[in-house]
Design brief:
Layout: E1 5-10, E2 19-24, E3 27-31, H1 56-62, H2 75-78, E4 92-94, H3 100-103, E5 114-118, H4 119-131, E6 141-145, E7 151-153, E8 156-163, E9 170-177, E10 180-184, H5 195-207, E11 212-216, H6 230-243, E12 248-252, H7 257-269, E13 273-276, H8 278-287, E14 305-307, H9 329-334, E15 339-342, H10 351-354, E16 361-365, H11 375-387, E17 390-393, H12 402-412, E18 416-420, H13 426-429, E19 443-445
Parallel strand pairs: 3-4, 4-5, 5-6, 10-11, 11-18, 12-15, 12-16, 13-14, 13-15, 16-17
Antiparallel strand pairs: 1-2, 1-19, 2-3, 7-8, 8-9, 9-10
Length: 449
């Protein structure tokens, strides 16, 4: 019987889209399954042109946007695709975290295949489905794993370790096979509030003397973008709010609980209230019980945290508990100095009613664009210029810097390094030994060079 192999079905020379298949004899385990940030998707599908709901896997397979793997997809997702339906031949899926590029295609997977997640990720996925009608993960046999507790799938043993990332409840995995351990990092950083988790994971990885390290490399290669630590973001926001008395606005990822907590603390220190959308309020209320008491602020229970109520023709049931006492644009405009308003890009039309003063600060607490032709970035700046708002970039990346990545490789000392989730795998080859940039859909023997 052939020895264990690794096959990279996504995440190769691209950001996101991780799909790692580990096989050992008859046992097959998949790690992560989501779309990439590659422009290839937008060559065929855009906001108004989507795969058909009756056969999404078929439509994505047509353009090579998902891998051709038998025994993986749900019958309903395939429809009458030229890849015929087969009973499950993948025996488990492990999800590292709830970002779309790692979990966004779960709804395509056969519901009989067990999906393993952390308890926090399971709650986040439920909250995302509730508040985002277009996001569906499908019906599955969900299995919730415990931190650092092995899960056996045939001859493969998977040990999940929590790591620090820009979404809570992220994990890396030690994957023990019959020919040695594979370390799969998922996405991680060690400049955020849970940096100690990342350090514990990589110490455990080094102790395994791994045959292979599959490491994300988002920030490998050229990276001119400005990135702070989470503490650095707090200092910058504190400094800005201390010198600007007007209504202040911020834009951040609604699932970045660390950043929302940072903005809340900065607002309170400046004698302001943080205003969030009902969707963000729902998410905070969902995850707060999974944190130590008082760690995560919740609207309605935490002083200085309130909900901004947009004018809408209809409201959803999940929104209604957060709309009692929600502030209108008129109320925020008339007492702007009292607020820091977290405003998503999709809600920018609210600026027409808010009318913030010229020069009011806009805190962009998200990644800067990867390319100069980023459409969303151009639109954002047109709105800011129209209203005369002052742009301030203040972000702590969810990913480790290149120098940190290379130091991790040196400390773990794997036999082979496979860089994924990066456009620049060659940057690893120039810095550390044993690097093998993987090719798509090519099986690699565990421990082989």
């Amino acid at each position: 019987m052939a020895g264990p192999t690794l096959t990279f079905l996504g995440g190769v020379r691209e950001i996101g889209g991780n799909k790692l298949l580990v096989e050992d004899g008859p046992d097959r385990v998949l790690f992560d399954f989501g779309p990439s940030f590659s422009p290839q998707f937008e060559q065929y599908y855009v906001e108004y042109l989507k795969p058909r709901s009756t056969s999404p896997a078929k439509d994505l397979l047509e353009f090579g946007l998902v891998p051709r793997v038998e025994g993986l997809y749900a019958r309903e997702a395939l429809g009458d695709a030229d890849l015929p339906y087969r009973a499950p031949e993948v025996h488990a899926v492990f999800v590292s975290h709830a970002h779309a590029d790692h979990a966004g295609y779960l709804d395509l997977i056969d519901p009989e295949i067990p999906v393993h997640v952390g308890s926090g990720t399971r709650e986040l996925l439920r909250a995302i489905e509730t508040t985002s009608p277009s996001m569906r993960y499908g019906e599955h046999r969900w299995h919730v794993f415990a931190d650092r507790t092995p899960v056996r799938v045939g001859r493969i043993e998977v040990v999940p370790y929590p790591v620090d990332h820009s979404i809570p409840f992220a994990y890396g995995f030690l994957v023990r096979t019959s020919e040695g351990t594979v370390v799969y990092t998922g996405d991680f950083r060690h400049h955020g509030p849970r940096a100690s988790d990342t350090h514990v994971f990589f110490r455990a990885a080094a102790a395994e003397e791994p045959a292979a390290l599959v490491i994300e490399g988002t920030r490998a290669g050229p990276d001119s973008r400005r990135n702070l630590t989470e503490e650095g973001v707090r200092r910058e926001v504190d400094r800005l709010l201390a010198h600007r008395p007007e209504l202040a606005l911020a834009c951040t990822y609604p699932r970045d609980v660390d950043r929302l907590t940072t903005l809340y603390a900065a607002a309170r220190a400046a004698d302001r209230s943080l205003l969030v959308s009902p969707r963000t309020a729902y998410l905070l209320a969902t995850v707060a019980p999974l944190y130590p008491e008082g760690t995560v602020p919740v609207p309605g229970r935490s002083e200085g945290l309130a909900v901004y109520g947009r004018k809408k023709r209809r409201t959803f049931l999940w929104e209604r508990p957060f709309l009692d006492g929600a502030l209108s644009a008129e109320e925020v405009r008339d007492a702007g100095t009292r607020y820091l308003l977290a405003l998503d890009l999709v809600h920018f039309p609210e600026l027409i009613d808010l009318r913030p003063p010229k020069g009011a600060p806009f805190i962009h607490s998200m990644s800067e664009p990867f390319t100069e032709d980023d459409v969303d970035d151009r639109v954002l700046h047109r709105w800011l210029d129209h209203f005369g708002l002052a742009f301030h970039q203040m972000h702590a990346s969810g990913h480790a810097a290149a120098s940190e990545l290379f130091e991790i490789v040196r400390s773990v000392r794997p036999a082979t390094v496979y860089p994924i989730h990066t456009q620049h795998p060659e940057a690893f080859r120039d810095a550390v030994p044993g690097v093998r940039p993987p090719e798509l859909a090519t099986p690699y023997p565990v421990g082989g060079r």
